[in-house]
Structures are given as structure tokens and as C-alpha cells.
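Researcher: Sequence recovery benchmark, item below. Answer with residues only.
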């Protein structure tokens, strides 16, 4: 791989988020965990209208991967695009790309990961203190491109509370993996005095080509498309899968009794192989400014006024060997203001305004999009009416989106499209008895097409196709229903739910049955075109923790067995299923996850902790005509941890075993599933110190 680019502000070469970790490594599920993404006010998972997940502390540490998609892929309802170790984006309930919005502290990441699956999310999970996932439309607060859900990555670069300690607090971590010869270092530091608080963090990660169990190409692909004479099938190692990534961030806040404001600057540099081609690497650079603050009770009848603004300058270059190829650039901002009003009659809620602007450019021989200016301005209202055992939530959002292209000889004269989109939803959270909740939500959403769906016109090497947009596309309309039941106390805790989405004019990339022949290279690519179709998505998710043994009687429910020796034993069960089809043709939609389930035993005794886990994905034979079936797989993972506390310093040692049976596993959601399996057997050893 070429030499790594210099990152000017990385004076500390290691850093992980400054999250506060519990003394063991067991990812205990709790519905009392607070989540801020699903509603204007922070609520526990039990109180949320929509199904949600929070990864932090031990759970984040055990799930941490090099990409956002793989970090979240074990969560209920969440899978990954899995474009090799360097790039993956989350898929929620079978919906991905622009139907899942990725935020950082509540504002857009602003990268090009939604343009192509080989483009990485420009924010590394190593630098995050928590990741929140809301499953299902979050359109009222975050817009129509959240039909699948929203992922909010949270860092601590803008502190929101005063620093009262005498000495700085922070953490340092390191981890080493065998499957990819990985090294990861991370750390963070927070300090201040009185109202002034400062934070610094950084990280560094490097991996070699990934070890895989067997052939890189699947047995089906080897049988249907044998290599040319003299070519050798890659075996045991996934070619061109090495990665390098570094980043850092610093921020400061002024905090007073009635509010705070703060500013942060951060950056990420990454270099990774694209896996799809043996000599293509992507060199990524992102720089980001964030400004956030809030006024608590600034005036009568106003509970809080919160404001956020993020500015991003992003670019990456695709190299063919040492030769620079296509550049993808995006620069823009995202800002929002939310005003929470006090109770007015039976109503309490939030009104807000959001604005986004960015300029996207693709420059080079393989650019399949023109330069586009994109603007979105939005107004939204979210209201709640509480009753004794029932809480009613409802609201509406209006988005006005504009897309304007620049004239280009390859794409023709400039063009402008403007869309007006309206979304509304209503839901109830009902508590029939203590510790139980039933949530029902209904939503209607209009999603304007993206600039890719409108203006694409050229060969897209990453997907192996020639893509054609449709400038006449209108909004994608959908109706969604989500029903869930939750239980937060007792021998068994968790949630179960079902969902149904009905789309009119679902924008799908479909084969045309014709081919494009490159006049220079002679390569032949199938032509795909974006077109509106009817589509249905339905399925469900189950998450449950059975508390087999509780450590002390004071913390245990009366129905749970108690261990006088202070031991804890939990059985975690998780399953999800999504079925999606083209309603017009009655054919399956491409790259949908199969039925998946997970079972894990978590044990704790004193300073020791352990976990044994099995992940199963069923055979996926529901696929479109351009895909091959995907075989089932079972992954066995394990973890062992020990925590040492000395004064105010806590050090956690952990050992993780991944895919211990060396199973060949391929994800049906990945466009590369038949040439890039998941990692083979590996061990990860790490240590984390907090002070």
C-alpha cells in the first residue's frame, strides 16, 4: 500500500472514546439505558416509541470493528453492506443507502458513503463514546431519508457539563488481532476548571490483508464463472483488504447553570483496499468543525433552546496502483435549531428548523455523476400528550429539496429539480401494568430522490454495472406500521416487535437487459437504471435477556434466583427477519438479510467475566435474478475479561475469540458476498485503562 498521508493535528497517535466502562466486559442489556436520538427529550429505551439500541461501554468494546456497518451488524434488525474490511455502512430492516441517515452528534456526517458501497463512512467507531440506532422511520426529527432508521455516533468533543475534578480524566486503549494482524491504539483526555472544559482524543489503526477460511470466491461463483487459464484462485487471504486509519479531535466548552456552548475540530485520514479490484485503493480525508450549545429555560414557557451546526470538507481519491484515478469531493454544512416548549394545555413538545447544503463533485475518467449542488430546508413539529398509562405522540415535517447540476460535456447541460416532501406520524406508548409497555406507531413519508438516483450516467466500477438515473423521478411515498412490546424488569427482560412498510414508487436500481461496452478497454458492463416500483417490506425483531443468576438480593427481582457469592449469569437471545419484494413483479428485492439469530451466555464473578456466543444466519434463497443464493452459517465467538482497580485507576484486560470454528460466512447484503467472505478464525487481545 502507498505511504499514509500526514495528519497535521495528530500529536497523539492513540485514542479511543472517553466512555466510562463498567468493571467487566459483559454487554448487559438494560431498557433503562437513555437514548437521545429517537425523540426531542432523552428517554430510556423502555420509554421510546420506536425500537432503539444503544452501544456504549462494554457492549461497544466487544462489538467494535473497523467500520460502522460491521460494528452494528450483530444488533437486532441491523446488517451491513460489508464491502471488505475498509468500508461498510449499516442496513436497517433491509433498507440502506439514503434510507438510513448517519449522524454525528445529531448532524449529518456529510460523506459519500451513500453514493457507492465501496465508500467508507467518514467517522471511525474508535473515536465514539456511544452509538445509538433507531429502527424505523425517524422522519419527524431527521427527515425523509430515515425510512430504515437513523444511526447517531456520539463523541465527547464538546462537553456539556462542568469539570469538577482536580485532575484530568481520560482513558487509553490498545488492541491486537490475529486474523488481520491488526494494531489499534486510542485514547482521550478531558480537563478544565469551573465553566471551561477541554477535550482531546485520537486513534490509530492498521491492518494487513484479512485471513479467510478457504477460497475468496464462493463455490457457486467458481462453478459458474471459472477463472481464465493460468489465473490462481485466491485462498486463505482476502487480496487487497489491508487498511490504515488515523484521526484526532479537540474541543472546548463553556458551561454555566443555564446552558453551554462549545466548538470542536476533528479529522480522519484513511487508506484502504477496495477488495473488488486487486490494485485499487481509496485515500480518504475528512475535516470537520462542530458548534453546539443550548439554553435551559431561557424564557417563560420555553424549556430549552438547542442549536447544532456542523461543517465538513471531505474528499477521497481512488488509486489504481500508484496512479490517481477518480476524485470524490463533498463540502457543506448541516445546522438545526430545536425549541422545546413547556406544557400548553395537554401538549408538550418541540418545534424546529433544519438546513443542509453541500456541493458534490466526481472528477476523473470513472466519474458517473456530474457536479451537483444540493439544498434541503426543513420545518418540523413534534408534540406529546401524556395520560395516566398512555402517552400519545404525533407531528409533521416539511422538507424542500433542491438539486442543481453544472453543465458538463459528459452529462449534458445543467439541470435543476426541486421537490416538496411532507411527512407525518402518530404513535402511542401504553403501560398496561408496571414494567410493561406496548408501542404502536404509524407514519406516512415522502422521500425525494437523491442526486445519484436522478443524475447517474456512467460505468460504476465498484458495483460492476453501468448506472442510469432518471431525472423525471418523483417522491417515493411510503406508509409504515410498527408494533412492539417491551418488558424492563423481572426474570426476563427485552422487547419484541413487528413492522410493515408499503412503498409506492420505491426507487430501485433494476437491470435493463442490455449491456454497455467500454470503447477503450472493451469491458462489458450490464446496464442498470433507477426506476419507481411498488415494494413491500415486513418482518420483526426479538431481543430478550433471561437473568439466570443475580449477584445480590437487593438488586434481584423476587422471581429471579439469587447468588450469595456475587455471581451473575445471563442468557441473551436475539432474532430478526425481513422479507422484501417488488410488488409489481412479485420478485424478491436484492441483497436482503435472511433470518438471523444470536444466543449468548454472559457470566460474571468478581473481577472476572466471560461470554460465549453463537450467531446464525439462515440460507438466503430469496434473491433477484442477478444474484446467487447465500449459504447459511454459524459463527462461534467467545470473550474473557479481567478488571483491576487501583485507587481511581481501572484497567480492563480482555481476550476475544472470533469465528472459532473457522466457518465460511458470506453476507447476503453485500454486493461482494461471492468474492469476499467474512474473517476466519481470529483472536483479539486488548487492554483499556481509565483514570
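Model:
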Amino acid at each position: 500500500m502507498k505511504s499514509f498521508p500526514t495528519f497535521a493535528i495528530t500529536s497523539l497517535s492513540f485514542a479511543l472514546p472517553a466512555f466510562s466502562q463498567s468493571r467487566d466486559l459483559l454487554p448487559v442489556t438494560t431498557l433503562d439505558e437513555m437514548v437521545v436520538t429517537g425523540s426531542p427529550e432523552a428517554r430510556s429505551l423502555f420509554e421510546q416509541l420506536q425500537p432503539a439500541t444503544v452501544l456504549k461501554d462494554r457492549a461497544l468494546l466487544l462489538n467494535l470493528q473497523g467500520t460502522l456497518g460491521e460494528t452494528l451488524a450483530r444488533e437486532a434488525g441491523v446488517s451491513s453492506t460489508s464491502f471488505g474490511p475498509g468500508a461498510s455502512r449499516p442496513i436497517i430492516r433491509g433498507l440502506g443507502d439514503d434510507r438510513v441517515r448517519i449522524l454525528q452528534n445529531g448532524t449529518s456526517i456529510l460523506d459519500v458513503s451513500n453514493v457507492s458501497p465501496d465508500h467508507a463512512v467518514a467517522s471511525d467507531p474508535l473515536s465514539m463514546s456511544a452509538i445509538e440506532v433507531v429502527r424505523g422511520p425517524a422522519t419527524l426529527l431527521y427527515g425523509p431519508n430515515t425510512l430504515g432508521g437513523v444511526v447517531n455516533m456520539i463523541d465527547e468533543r464538546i462537553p456539556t457539563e462542568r469539570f469538577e475534578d482536580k485532575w484530568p480524566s481520560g482513558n487509553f486503549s490498545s488492541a491486537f488481532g490475529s486474523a488481520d494482524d491488526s494494531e489499534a491504539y486510542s485514547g482521550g483526555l478531558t480537563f478544565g476548571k469551573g465553566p471551561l472544559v477541554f477535550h482531546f482524543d485520537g486513534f490509530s489503526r492498521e491492518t494487513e490483508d484479512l485471513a479467510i477460511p478457504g477460497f475468496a470466491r464462493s463455490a457457486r461463483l467458481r462453478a459458474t464463472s471459472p477463472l481464465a487459464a493460468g489465473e490462481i484462485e485466491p485462498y486463505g487471504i482476502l487480496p487487497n483488504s489491508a487498511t490504515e486509519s488515523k484521526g484526532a479531535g479537540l474541543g472546548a466548552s463553556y458551561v454555566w447553570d443555564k446552558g453551554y456552548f462549545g466548538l470542536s475540530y476533528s479529522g480522519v485520514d484513511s487508506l484502504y483496499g477496495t477488495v473488488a479490484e486487486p490494485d485499487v485503493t481509496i485515500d480518504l480525508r475528512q475535516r470537520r468543525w462542530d458548534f453546539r450549545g443550548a439554553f435551559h429555560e431561557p424564557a417563560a414557557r420555553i424549556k430549552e433552546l438547542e442549536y447544532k451546526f456542523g461543517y465538513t470538507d471531505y474528499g477521497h481519491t481512488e488509486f489504481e496502483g500508484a496512479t490517481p484515478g477518480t476524485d470524490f469531493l463533498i463540502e457543506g454544512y448541516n445546522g438545526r435549531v430545536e425549541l422545546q416548549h413547556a406544557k400548553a394545555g395537554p401538549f408538550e413538545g418541540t418545534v424546529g428548523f433544519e438546513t443542509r447544503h453541500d456541493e458534490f463533485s466526481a472528477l476523473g475518467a470513472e466519474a458517473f455523476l456530474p457536479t451537483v449542488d444540493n439544498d434541503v430546508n426543513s420545518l418540523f413539529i413534534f408534540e406529546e400528550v401524556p395520560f395516566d398509562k398512555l402517552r400519545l405522540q404525533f407531528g409533521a415535517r416539511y422538507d424542500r429539496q433542491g438539486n442543481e447540476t453544472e453543465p458538463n460535456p459528459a452529462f449534458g447541460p445543467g439541470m435543476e429539480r426541486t421537490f416538496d416532501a411532507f411527512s407525518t406520524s402518530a404513535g402511542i406508548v401504553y403501560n398496561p401494568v408496571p414494567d410493561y409497555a406496548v408501542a404502536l406507531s404509524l407514519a406516512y413519508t415522502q422521500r425525494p430522490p437523491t442526486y445519484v438516483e436522478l443524475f447517474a450516467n456512467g460505468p460504476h466500477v465498484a458495483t460492476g454495472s453501468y448506472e442510469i438515473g432518471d431525472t423525471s423521478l418523483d417522491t417515493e411515498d411510503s406508509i409504515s406500521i410498527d408494533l412492539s412490546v417491551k418488558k424492563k424488569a423481572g426474570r426476563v427482560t427485552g422487547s419484541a416487535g413487528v413492522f410493515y412498510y408499503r412503498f409506492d414508487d420505491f426507487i430501485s436500481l433494476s437491470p435493463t437487459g442490455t449491456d454497455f461496452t467500454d470503447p477503450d478497454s472493451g469491458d462489458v458492463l450490464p446496464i442498470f437504471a433507477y426506476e419507481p416500483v411498488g415494494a413491500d417490506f415486513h418482518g420483526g425483531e426479538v431481543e430478550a435477556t433471561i437473568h439466570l443468576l443475580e449477584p445480590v438480593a437487593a438488586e434481584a427481582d423476587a422471581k429471579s434466583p439469587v447468588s450469595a457469592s456475587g455471581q451473575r449469569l445471563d442468557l441473551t437471545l436475539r432474532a430478526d427477519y425481513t422479507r422484501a419484494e417488488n410488488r409489481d413483479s412479485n420478485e424478491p428485492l436484492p441483497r436482503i438479510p435472511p433470518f438471523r439469530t444470536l444466543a449468548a451466555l454472559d457470566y460474571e464473578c468478581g473481577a472476572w467475566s466471560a461470554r460465549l456466543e453463537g450467531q446464525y444466519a439462515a440460507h438466503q434463497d430469496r434473491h433477484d435474478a442477478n444474484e446467487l443464493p447465500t449459504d447459511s452459517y454459524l459463527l462461534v465467538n467467545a470473550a474473557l475479561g479481567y478488571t483491576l482497580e487501583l485507587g481511581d485507576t481501572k484497567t480492563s484486560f480482555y481476550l476475544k475469540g472470533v469465528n472459532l470454528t473457522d466457518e465460511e460466512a458470506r453476507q447476503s447484503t453485500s454486493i461482494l458476498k461471492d468474492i469476499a467472505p467474512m474473517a476466519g478464525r481470529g483472536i483479539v487481545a486488548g487492554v483499556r485503562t481509565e483514570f
